[in-house]
Amino acid sequence: MGDKLKEKMLGALAWSSVDRVAQQVVQLVIGIALARLLSPTDYGLMGMVMIFAALSYVLVEGGFNYALVRTKNLDDRYTNTVFYTNMAVSVTLYLILFFGAPLIADFFEQPRLTDIARVTFLAILFNAAYLVPFAIIGKNMDYKSLAKTNIIGTLCGGLLGILLAWRGYGVWALVAQQTGYHFFRIFGFYWYTRWRPRLMFSFGIIREFGSFTLPILGSSLLTVIFNNLYTFLLGKYYPIRQVGYYTQAYKVSDAANFMFVSILNSTTYNLFAQIHEQRDRVARILRTMSHRSSLIIFPIVGCLILIAKPLFFSLFGEKWLAAVPYFQLLCAANLLTPLYQMMGNALNAIGKSKVTLTLEVIKRSLIVCSVFIVFLWLDKDITALLIGYILANYIAFVCSMICISHFLSTPIYNQLGDLIHGLMIGGVCGLTAWGMSHLVGMIFPDNLYVACATVAATAFVTYLLLIRFVFKDLWQSVMSLLQSKINIGKNTQAENDDPTE
């Protein structure tokens, strides 16, 4: 049983990694094209609308997907009840937002937002339509189908956006990208699951799920509200171009963060949910994944912070350089977020969703305090706002470590020990990249393209050398895994080519 679960987990992580990496590559290419075709003002307008869309996605899902994945004997009564609940909530929210769109436009003093919002919010309906098939794929850990659906949805929505941007439609290109992404995902999820809704509904199931899903819903709402808090404040009190710079910085920083969080969030929760009754096993796997993840996340995020200026210039052009400081601070703030989310998954899986809600309340309370301090005494300085965000995230991470220590009997010093290696590698890679950036800057002072490529290559080579010679066990396990996959592929090909069959 253990070997099968381990094999399933490795396959899930592999396909989830393919999904996120491929999706982020596609989004990066599309984002570069759109950023060069559109203006910061276009991104500012879309950022204001997405505050309400993101909040609606969470309200529609309501934590039910987590409950479906955790349900042992999942049948049509559960899936259909959740489906019709999701659809009812989505229709209600869309009607409220449709008629409330003029109020949103008045609040931000941007009349164009009325029409933009009404079209963008169609994505809420599209999202609700595929949540149940999405949960079924997650429960089955069928990340191959998930990867295909996500990549196709990202590509189709992105190409639609690029076409409209190229034709001069401005912000409507971003609207088409957002709604198109959710629309095209519907077909993929229903195709791969073969699930179809039936006329079945049970209020008893809603009550059964309630005690588990409500804390998750509350935690998710807090996350979305505070993830969009700064966009909201900037949209109200700052010029719209400033909102555009922040939105672009957030999108780029969130791309790397989203890749890590999505891989760990989806796969780890589904795994922990299957073994939630074996807390010692959950703790052991959590420690292993924290250690391995930190060896990847810390060096990458550190290098992104250091090469931010040449990176933005190379990808998006000079008009976006004002977004660099925001990007660097957001990367620093989200350094520990993937690990924090993974800890939350472990706590949710063992039934401690109220604890994760409490952690979110603590984290968000700290953010609110920092906002009040900045607005009252620091003249609404954006940099100070983001420094407060960094401190709140780090304090919340320490609190989550205390909870893991209590509920999974993993001492804090062991948890810190799991992160030390990642911090050491990140520090060495960062210092090497920083030194190389200064050297290249002296040789090619006006060529940021060369600086970006050279620094990235130096950091990557340094990272590989450190893993190869310092963490030999990790290097060998990765090489063994790759070799086994290659051998399986060769054997499969040989069987297919066998003329005797």
Following the backbone from N to C, one meets helices and strands in this order, namely HHHHHHHHHHHHHHHHHHHHH
Q: Whole-number average pLDDT?
A: 83
From the alpha carbons, calculate the radius of gyration and give it in angstroms. 23 Å
Tell me how many strands there are. Answer: 0
> Please, how many domains?
2
Assembly type of the chains comes to single chain
Sheet/helix structural class: mainly alpha
Largest sheet properties: none
The gross shape turns out to be globular
Beginning-to-end CA distance, first to last residue = 32 Å
How many helices in DSSP terms?
21
Poorly predicted residue ranges: 492-501
Strand content: under 5%
Q: How much helicity do the residues have?
A: over 70%
Care to describe what's here?
It is a single chain. This protein is 86% helix and 0% strand. It has two domains: 38-216, no CATH class; 238-484, no CATH class. By secondary structure, it is mostly helical. It has helices at residues 2-37, 40-61, 64-70, 76-108, 113-120, 122-129, 131-139, 143-166, 172-193, 203-227, 229-237, 240-274, 279-306, 308-316, 324-333, 337-349, 353-377, 382-407, 412-443, 448-469, 472-497. Residues 492-501 have low confidence and may be disordered. α13 (279-306) packs antiparallel against α15 and α15 runs parallel beside α18. It is built from 21 helices and no strands.
